[in-house]
């Protein structure tokens, strides 16, 4: 009798422990970070231009004019500006059954934070991705994912492993130009491959010399580069 009671007690005990762990995990997953404000990402329902005015009237002219001068210059990207560009893109988007919407970007000292709502089968989570940009002693740039969270749960290790596997699967099935700047950026983010941060704008080639990230602002130092 005592043995049966002990077994029942142990069964109930571990059932309660499992239930408690499940509840804690759900609380962590459903946690809404205080700094995520979807209203900052929501475009107006009507009268919204298809292309961001910040992109066409401020950022692009700043880049083009700076490159034409053939001397080092600073390209300044504001947090509000980048969010305006994002808001003018097509949202929501779906990937593998997950619906992503209302993304916002935050510039914080030495990092870029992307936050977005993710809806899976009617349950909504907030996904947070923290990225860092580092130039090494040889001038090579590496864009790294420093942290990935769903709600308050850190899933960085799993997310990076899955992203790396998907990146290699994509390479195996789709031919890519490894010299394309966008491809090199993807290789850096998903496969931890530093790259020469140089690209062409029309007939001019420029190189990223320095990246500085402060609250609300990203400053990229660019200089002329030779082929």
Question: What is the compact description of this entry?
Answer:
The protein has 227 residues and is an alpha+beta fold. It has 5 helices and 10 strands. The strands form 2 sheets. Strands 2-3-4-5-6-7 form a 6-stranded antiparallel beta sheet. It has a 4-stranded antiparallel beta sheet with strand order 1-10-9-8.
How would you explain this protein's 3D organization?
- There is one protein chain.
- This protein has one domain (31-44, 53-224).
- Helix content is 37%, strand content 34%.
- The chain has five helices and ten strands.
- The N and C termini lie far apart (85 Å).
Features:
single chain; 227 residues; alpha+beta; six-stranded antiparallel beta sheet; four-stranded antiparallel beta sheet; 5 helices; 37% helix; 34% strand
Rough shape? elongated
By secondary-structure content and strand pairing, the structural class works out as alpha+beta
Q: Strand order, biggest sheet?
A: 2-3-4-5-6-7
SSE string: HHEHEEEEEEHHEEE
